[in-house]
Every structure is written in structure tokens, then in C-alpha cells.
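User: I'll paste a sequence; please echo it back and then give the predicted structure.

Assistant: Echoing your sequence first, then the prediction.
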Amino acid sequence: ERVAWAMAHVGVRGGRTAIDQLASGASVVAPVAQQALELMAPAARDDLRGTGAGREMTVNRAFSRRFFEALGQGGLPQESRAALDALDASGPMELLDEADLIDLEGDDDEDDDLDELDEADLIET
């Protein structure tokens, strides 16, 4: 969804032809580009304002910020500023906590009943 939203912003700011070409192709990007075409109208009127002070920085938010900053350096400073302001006004989509982490050390009791594989477990072909 974030990629489609970013593509919609690019489309609104002069990249519509490229988005159309991506949407009409047969690649894995085509459905995302089609979604971007649907999001272009809301992206064009995206005028949210907010305060950037003290916002939590997530990986997605950091990527979005860099994307819109780069868009501004490409000759579209007003549009990118509006997008950055909208990004600052938005809240994080999902926050992770300790329960979301995967234990790679194998300390969990639920893995204790698993045996190690050996040659007898292999299927001959």
C-alpha cells in the first residue's frame, strides 16, 4: 500500500505516463501501479498538515521521509514539503513489541521435541 501511495504521488507530480506503462505491463509491479492510478486523486489533494516534533521514527516512516525528500530535490519542493507534512501528521500503521520477535537462539521449550536430521531422514532419488 505504501509503494502504491508513493507511486501515486510520483504520478501526480509528472510521472503519470510511467505509472500507466507499469500498470499496463505483465510484471509483478502492475497491480501496485494499478492501485497507484486509483490513489492519484487523493494524492493530488493530499494537504494534511502537522507538527513533526517528536514523532516516532519507524523503518517505513524513515523510507517515506527519504523518498519525499528525494522527490523535493528533483525539482518539486512544494509537493514534497506537503507530502512530508502529511507524513508527519500521520500515525504509525503498526507498532511491534517483544512478543513479535522471533527467538533464533532456540531457547523456546516448544522446540525441545524436535530431533536433529541425519542421513536416515533423507529420501533417495
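Residues 102 and 108 are 10 Å apart (CA to CA). Residues 47-54 have pLDDT under 50 and may be disordered.
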